[in-house]
Amino acid sequence: MRDELAGFTIGVTADRRRDELAALLQRRGARVVLAPALRIVPLADDTDLREATRACLAHPPDVLMANTGIGMRGWLEAAEGWGLAEPLRATLARAYVVSRGPKATGAIRAAGLREHWSPASESCDEVVEHLVRRGVAGQVVALQLHGDRQPECTEALVTAGATVIEVPVYRWAPPADPAPLHRLIDLVAGRLVDAVTFTSAPAAEALLRAAGDRAETVLEALRGDVLAGCVGTVTAEPLVRRGVPVSAPSRARLGALVRTIVEELPRRTVSVKAAGHVLTLRGHAAVVDGELRPLAPAPMAVLRALAASPGKVLSRTALLRTLPRGADEHAVEMAVARLRVGLKAPRVVQTVVKRGYRLRVD
């Protein structure tokens, strides 16, 4: 596999498919930080799910709105445990079935049912618009929920004259171990990752919620140095609403998301010429004349500051501001020394006596 992402660090906020996404990124050379923002809690024994199922059997839905593959499978599995799977499947087979995307479609077909319509955008809003145009007045709509309640969808359908049965198959919960997520928030705020991937809108909301009073700092990083990679436009919506430019593939697939990141990240790199060498800065490495040179955070921070103004002398005080809090001027000297060793091109960084350091561009 090619190493297009070598030298880049990418955060993964997914839970259920985190290993799959991480493997796709690592095969392309990326360093991955796993930090699930949420986890899915199945509701197989939940009273609300059982009551919603019995409501569907008592008042057979004219329309089934299937939002997710995992949700539809979980619903039918729960019904199996209650001895209601066959009556439920027979009831849903008589409904007009709308699946929000390919995963929901796959679950519908695996259950022996047939979807009648699916939106190109995989958007709940487009599904609701389609149903309202088609006409739902006087009809019963079974709405398989996507984690949390979707009041805007329910209200739109009720306003159009439908009776809505909300089917809560699972809910989102905080990660069992919040430490990796807070670590990722630190990395984003410090601009020590190059990209963060999101595979659901709730995960994006959860990361910002976990950031607390640093949420605006995280957003500023995502608006600038840190790429927000979203699996689709629905996932991107919470970030877009907050002014974050996102990169998302046209088809909501993990492979397509990785390809989008492969295309986008290298475009954001900075390249400079210094002391006869060509340096390209990546997240945790520099490419020197085509050779990848991994660097620790402090030397990398110094190199970024020097590369922002090639040839300009930066004082130790100025470079100190790029290092973690608590560092002193001796730490700057150590970072410069480690930078020279790491680059394997010692003449690139020049010491200017009593003034500071610069990239040698002459």
UniProtKB/TrEMBL annotation:
<keyword id="KW-0238">DNA-binding</keyword>
<dbReference type="InterPro" id="IPR036108">
    <property type="entry name" value="4pyrrol_syn_uPrphyn_synt_sf"/>
</dbReference>
<dbReference type="InterPro" id="IPR001867">
    <property type="entry name" value="OmpR/PhoB-type_DNA-bd"/>
</dbReference>
<dbReference type="InterPro" id="IPR036388">
    <property type="entry name" value="WH-like_DNA-bd_sf"/>
</dbReference>
<dbReference type="Pfam" id="PF02602">
    <property type="entry name" value="HEM4"/>
</dbReference>
<dbReference type="GO" id="GO:0006355">
    <property type="term" value="P:regulation of DNA-templated transcription"/>
</dbReference>
<dbReference type="GO" id="GO:0006780">
    <property type="term" value="P:uroporphyrinogen III biosynthetic process"/>
</dbReference>
<dbReference type="InterPro" id="IPR039793">
    <property type="entry name" value="UROS/Hem4"/>
</dbReference>
<dbReference type="GO" id="GO:0000160">
    <property type="term" value="P:phosphorelay signal transduction system"/>
</dbReference>
<dbReference type="GO" id="GO:0004852">
    <property type="term" value="F:uroporphyrinogen-III synthase activity"/>
</dbReference>
<dbReference type="GO" id="GO:0003677">
    <property type="term" value="F:DNA binding"/>
</dbReference>
<feature type="DNA-binding region" description="OmpR/PhoB-type">
    <location>
        <begin position="267"/>
        <end position="361"/>
    </location>
</feature>
<feature type="domain" description="OmpR/PhoB-type">
    <location>
        <begin position="267"/>
        <end position="361"/>
    </location>
</feature>
<dbReference type="InterPro" id="IPR003754">
    <property type="entry name" value="4pyrrol_synth_uPrphyn_synth"/>
</dbReference>
<protein>
    <submittedName>
        <fullName>Uroporphyrinogen-III synthase</fullName>
    </submittedName>
</protein>
<dbReference type="InterPro" id="IPR016032">
    <property type="entry name" value="Sig_transdc_resp-reg_C-effctor"/>
</dbReference>
<dbReference type="Pfam" id="PF00486">
    <property type="entry name" value="Trans_reg_C"/>
</dbReference>
